[in-house]
Specification:
The protein is of the alpha+beta class. It contains one helix and four strands. About 25% of the residues lie in helices and about 40% in strands. The longest helix is centred in the C-terminal third of the chain and has 16 residues.
Amino acid sequence: MNHPTTIDKYQILRHLGGGHFSEVYHAFDRALQAEKALKVLDITDPNEFLQALAEAQILQRCNHKRIVAIN
């Protein structure tokens, strides 16, 4: 599988893994000069997209040392 080398402002450093509907990359945010994990969803169904968005919104509100922050 070919993986991208850039996505928008992110320089892709390496592929970390993937699943049924997403791929996760170790990426460098060129605008903020910071390394991040970048999850790229492969969703074409609008209902699936809304479900993933709702999950991300819930995670955004969570603040705990054992939960990965969403930026």
